[in-house]
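Retry 2 of 3 after timeout on previous attempt. Resubmitting structure tokens to design endpoint.
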């Protein structure tokens, strides 16, 4: 730890809990990638959902530095900080994903993951679908004297 400039090791309180339903544990987990860049089209993701019955997770990777810059500019102009196509994608994918028990993982939230979450929940409600949305985001940490 000394090479990091820290005298004492940093530890985190982690707790491991078994799943509520142990029968749902699997030997293999199937992950598919339905998008690989900002501006990608949703048809590959739809085909995965339609054709791969074992699919557990569908990843939609739609974020890059360019995309973050575009979303930042949109936010400054009063637009959304998340990918505006999230509605189109979720309208197309959510019904089949929920029906097949597939979890969608995406970074379409860009600069506004909370706004993206709210949009997905609004859309799901409109489709009559009950879902849970998990959210991961980073909070900037500023030390005194650095601001």
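Retry 2 succeeded. Sequence:
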């Amino acid at each position: 730890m000394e090479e990091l400039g820290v005298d004492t090791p940093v530890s985190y309180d982690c707790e491991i809990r078994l799943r509520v339903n142990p029968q749902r544990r699997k030997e293999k987990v199937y992950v598919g990638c339905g998008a690989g860049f900002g501006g990608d089209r949703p048809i590959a993701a739809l085909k995965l959902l339609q054709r791969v019955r074992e699919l557990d997770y569908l990843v939609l990777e739609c974020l890059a530095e360019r995309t973050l810059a575009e979303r930042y500019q949109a936010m400054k102009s009063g637009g959304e900080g998340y990918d505006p196509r999230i509605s189109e994608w979720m309208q197309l994918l959510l019904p089949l994903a929920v029906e097949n028990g597939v979890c969608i993982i995406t970074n379409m939230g860009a600069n506004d993951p909370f706004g993206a979450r709210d949009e997905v929940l609004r859309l799901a409600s409109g489709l009559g679908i009950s879902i849970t949305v998990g959210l991961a985001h980073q909070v900037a940490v500023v030390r005194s004297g650095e601001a």
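Attempt log closed. The chain has a mean pLDDT of 83.
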